[in-house]
Design brief:
Strand content: 25-35%
Largest sheet: 6 strands, mixed
Distance between the termini: 113 Å
Shape: elongated
Strand order of the largest sheet: 6-7-9-2-1-12
Number of strands: 12
Radius of gyration: 32 Å
Number of helices: 3
Structural class: alpha+beta
Order of helices and strands: HEEEEEEHHEEEEEE
Helix content: 25-40%
Length: about 210
């Protein structure tokens, strides 16, 4: 009887199996490499976007910074009013999440001034009670308010909000004062002004 067993056919079958295995392994490896590449690209893109957002402040000062002195605070600044708005292209910002710090060259320092927005802080700052209270800040006026409701804390495009910030006892004449406005997203907005040698009841600070 003729032997139908063929070594050549078996060897060809083995080669085909090995080739298919190599192709499958190469495909899986390529998928893993491409997936890692896509993930790295997306991570780098997110890092760039986050870096740009953190490097540029979302707030800007509009107009002058106004200093106010109470009638019984001789030679001492009581609080300042500064108008802020969103920078061009900025998204709406919840100002209740903002942290304001204070420092001056007389050693006065407050890393986190109390936010009393919505608690008539603006009215309190204009009274002698403010001199005895802890430092605080609030939104005392909203200009071009797009959503005039009591619970609206979002500063939106084309709006200008006036922030009133109380100053400590060290804010006297010839003192350089600095406020740092730290929004929830974006870089710190520093505001530095030097108090003149004589304080009026209301005056612009430079």
């Amino acid at each position: 009887m003729k032997n139908v067993y063929s070594e050549d056919a078996f060897t060809g079958l083995e080669a085909a199996i090995v080739l298919i295995a190599f192709v499958v392994v190469a495909a899986v490896f390529s998928y893993v490499v491409l997936g890692a590449g896509f993930f790295t690209t997306q991570t780098a893109q997110a890092t760039v976007h986050t870096g740009v957002a953190q490097a540029s402040s979302s707030l800007e000062v509009v107009g002058n910074v106004i200093g106010v002195k109470l009638s019984d605070s001789t030679g001492q600044l009581s609080y300042v009013n500064t108008s802020v708005a969103l920078t061009a292209g900025g998204t709406a910002m919840d100002l209740t999440q903002m942290v304001i710090s204070y420092s001056d060259n007389n050693g006065g320092r407050n890393p986190s001034i109390i936010n009393t927005t919505g608690l008539a802080c603006g009215a309190l700052l204009g009274t002698t009670e403010a001199a005895e209270a802890d430092n605080r800040w609030c939104v005392s006026q909203k200009i071009n308010d797009l959503n005039p409701t009591a619970s609206n804390n979002l500063l939106e495009s084309n709006e200008i909000w006036v922030i009133s910030i109380q100053t400590p006892d060290s804010a006297v004449v010839n003192t350089k004062i600095t406020f740092n406005l730290q929004p929830a997203v974006g870089a710190v907005l520093p505001i530095s002004r030097t108090l003149p040698g004589g304080l009026n009841t209301v005056q612009a600070l430079y």
